[in-house]
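#struct-help
A.M.: can someone run this one for me? Single chain, 81 residues.
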Amino acid sequence: MMKGAAKEGKKMSSSFLVQSAADHLRDTALQTSTIAGKAFQKWLMQPLNLFFLLIIIVAHIQLIVAVVQSFLMLLLSKLMG
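D.P.: on it. Structure tokens below:
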């Protein structure tokens, strides 16, 4: 009886971890697209201002880091379950 409850708890934890990874990735992708889009619009008006390009690059680096984090969280959930 106790082993079944522990197994069910691990399964719920794993499911919560996967959902958290998906939510985090979705939120980061939305934030990245918003920031990069606004910075790109401003850069088109001022092409010599490299600060806007830097913002776009940093936003995409943030997205890549979020993808790696989500991958590691999914890997962890597979190891838990």
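A.M.: thanks! The helical segments are 2-45, 51-80.
D.P.: also worth noting: The chain has a mean pLDDT of 87.
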